[in-house]
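User: Can you fold this complex?
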Amino acid sequence: MLKLTINDKEIEVPRGTMLLDACQQAGADIPTFCYDPDLKLAGSCRMCVVEVQGRRNLQASCVTPCENNMIVDTESANVVEARKIILELLLARHKLNCMVCEKVGACKLQEYCYRYDVKESRFAGEAAHFTREDPNPFIERDYDKCIMCTRCVRACEGITGAQAINVKDRGHHAKISTIFDGKLADSSCVFCGQCIMVCPVGALTSKVSMGKGRPFEYEKVLTTCTYCGTGCMLELNVKDDTVVGVTSNRDAQLSPVNKGALCVKGRFGWDFIHYKDRLTTPLIRENGQLREASWDEALDYAANRLNAVKAQHGPDSIALFSSARVTNEENYLAQKMARVAIGTNNVDHCARL
Amino acid sequence: MAEEQRVLLKYADQIDPKIAEDYIKVGGYKGLEKARSMDRKALIEEVKKSGLRGRGGAGFNAGMKWSFVPILDEDRYVVCNFDEGEPGTYKDRIICEKNAQALLEGMAICGAAIASNHGYIYCRGEYPFVVETLKEGIQSAKASGALGDFNIEVRMGAGAYVCGEETALIESIEGHRGEPRFKPPFPGVAGLWAHPTVVNNVETFACLPYILTNGAEWFAGIGAAKYPGTKVLTLTGDVVNATYFEVPTDYNLRDVIYKLGGGVKGGKKLKAVQVGGTSGAFIPEQNLDTPIDFDSMSAIGASLGSGAVFVMDETRDIVDIVTRISKFFEHESCGKCNPCREGTWRCREIMEKINAGKAGQKDIDNLMILSRVMKNAALCGLGQAAPIPIDSTLQHFAYEYSCKLN
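Assistant: Here's the predicted assembly.
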């Protein structure tokens, strides 16, 4: 075990612990942009710098391994100055339209500017202009708000494995880009939206949710995705009893199957919920016409017809075809109904096709 | 006229760097022979004892660096940093053009010390003609049998200054964007393809054959006690003899400029000297009696760096020069970390404002706080060193700034 003194508090951590974890363990709240526990370390935003006694420079705590007898100050004058200046530098390039930003209230840049009382940037010179049209239906890319933390790049590679985006160009011209700076649709992007999930600011947002509600306006309801049997957990963003979006929860306890990762259907394919053509009651076909029915009536009707067909033609005259959009458990029950209640092995499933 | 002391460049223009036999005739590859006859650890001790410190700019003890390399069951690499991107620096090119075989021998000596037989030379993208020399030199050394089983491959950069930073250089060899890695882990433990790697400068490697041949004590006895040996300097700017010199490291700046360099051009007075390349501090006339060795330079807030000596005469506009330098860093920042990517950009903006006579004291204050944060918080040496020319000129040439303020 290593002994450290962090903000006058003595703590012990196992060898190999990073300073950021040790600081958090000592109760210090360290601001971070590029750090993400699920992604490859970058050590590039420099917001997590702390002062380690005897070191010439400030140390980025997310990539500094703990050493025995380190004496650390997480909010020294030098540290606060560095964080303030970094925030001001980022503000100077950031498109400040917080009043209409989808991320307002959940934006890390906003949070830290508030925390360090950064009202404006002393470096207000030329601003960056990176925004470009990307005519895909899902991901809004407003790179004038990008702070170059590269979490999207690392999530695309590390979580999804798509490697659709990377950094292009150098210095302050550096930006997130697809291959040859083309459209997302022409890249290896699968529109899973993991980039939106990890973006700490409003640079990457969902086009499907745009204008429908901001994080502080909706309630997040944890539920299981209905698109397939994998059982990914997602959060319905509910505002005034209406679903206005889908986000995901990265807590492995709450989201054990997917840890926040979703596919394009789960993250963006929720607009059917309130769609006007959606079926909301069962329909029974009579004389070639469909009419609305209650669930009891429809289920009785189906049971009677199944029994009648079975009595007349035998159980193997019936086949059951189930859907990949229900859970594994429901699919299990469906085959059991076919085999036990109806008595046939004629069972199949659309995911097999 | 003061004398140079030539060790690395002793046979310059007398031998062909492409031909191993030429080099062997003047005593070449004896050092490697000796190194290979020694125990690996004794060899590292010998290099440590010589006091040889990195000639690329950081001045780290070479033997010490090698001693950090763990010898486990995996490949290890010897990498030569020949990116030489500091403006005004061309000493590594001169060493390769005059005595490339010494570099190859030095790399093989390092290979013997860390039990590696893979070497890479990362050559500056603007030096395609030197690549040819190196390739032919390697071929000749291999054919002569002098290198034994030590193989050397030459890789070319593509014009990024930051690739002179050892971890960015490694990223570039691996085929990635030239961006520095965070340290630790240091390359000695996890470098090229995550294997233990020694990265040394051309000049550092080229010293090794002479250390092995003549003994560590001989080398330790040359020049400054704590930074022994000779140093190849490249003299540029307003100086009569704008060329290269090899001098012992206790030589002072005044002698470099006035004796070897023949003084300031046109009989003008000297205003400032910048040592170590573009990221070096500006040294005023009163500090010229400082020896060029690493520690003496550090003591006056400067750095020997790559050994470039850029002379500015009394007519030069310091603010204008620093503005140009700030443009260089804005262009060369890789964009990975916030303090450097955004900071070099804003430094350039403020410097241009000052240079155009449109700035006030507030801008100077902003520049100073920005420079402090860049030094404290940037990820790599580029961002940390970029504000040094600004700081050192604000310190020594404040008057020139105040003349341009409104």
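Chain A has four domains: 2-87, 129-207, 223-268, 283-352. The two ends of chain A are 55 Å apart (CA to CA).
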